[in-house]
Amino acid sequence: xxxxQLFPPGHPSMRQAAAPSSVEGALDGQFQRTWEFLAGIGxxxxxxxxxxxxxxxxxxxxxxxxAEQASQRGMDYHCDRxxxxxxxxxxxxxxxxxxxxxLDSVPDGGVYxxxxxxxxxxxxxxxxxxxxxxxxxxxxxTNFCDxxxxxxxxxxxxxxxxxxxxxPDRARGLRDVDGHxxxxxxxxxxxxxxxxGRDDEALSWIGDFVELHVEQGQRLVHLGAAVGVAxxxxxxxxxxxxxxxxxxxxxxxxxxxxxxxxLPFASTVLAARALAEQAGAVATVGKVHVVPNGTNAIPxxxxxxxxxRAPDETTVADLVAAITTTAQRAASxxxxxxxxxxxxxxxxxxxDARLRNRIHEVLGGVPELPTxxxxxxxxxxxxxxxxxxxxxxxxxxxxxxxEYASAVDCVAGVRALAAVLEDLSCR
Length: 427
Ligand code: GLV
Ligand code: MN
Ligand code: MN
Fold this sequence. Notes:
nine-stranded mixed β-sheet; binds glyoxylic acid; binds manganese (II) ion
């Protein structure tokens, strides 16, 4: 997958030098420069949010940035069969210590969700080198492909393919909103979709995986800590509800003659909220497609995507079953139909106890916290030991242009990650 040739070293957007030898004393400046540079890629001028969707020109620019960061540091660069990018300090080998995150975003997302982990990985390597650390095993920084699933609907595509959770045929056939398949989009970007699928060789490289991420919530604010360590990820999934009725004239069709799928859709959204509240869970409908989407036409179809999460799997299953029952009743009373399809699901994740305890010790007892957000570390945890560090988010807001973390806390995150990598690389 040689898409990086599209933005070769020397491309104007790539000139942002790393300076490993001077990093120890100048980490703040290095962080700011890297951050300001990345902040310019994929930002929507109208909303201030980021639209960094997999295999688009913006994504290719980010991928070129990643390859260039590896090259500037003299790290070996590798793109695996599923489009995940790797930068190696030391030769790729079984049991390496791997860090990183993702560079893609949700529609109008913030700049920290994902990139903070990738940038912190590179800067942590710089810090360790500047200190003359000689790791006992190779260290890799990664960019996992399409973590948010914003374009093709399934989250964590790169890590799900790598671990064999996502069937490559299904992945190749996933379509974006314009009807382009993932396979076509990769080809157009110069990548080869035919080699996608479970990759035991790449997986064997990961001895331990540590992902640093901006916190999506305010627990660290309340705990008064810049950095925390993750305990668990809530189980979560995505379900498509397809309501179908009959298109007709908005003025000339009597109410009693209508088969309007908007009505059961609306009832289902309200029920999802009420049922989630009762269950101690969360349920969100954040994406809707209406056909034909005309002001003066009763729709023929409404597709709505439910995202549901809870502390345990039974609660998620029961909640989705209850929402489905409500949707079916509402659909039938409006003389319409509903079909529910599970598009993705991630079981509960309990992060590796050995890694968690080690990190806790290395960082002098930083707070531990669970999260309701999904991550590549969660997907990888089914196959390899994984851990996560969170960096304080003053407002708790994420998946929004308002997402923020202070530079001071981000630098504290880099230092924490470097300490963890130093400790683990010698084990
Ligand atoms: C990804 O950030 C998710 O939690 O869906
Ligand atoms: Mn996210
Ligand atoms: Mn993320």
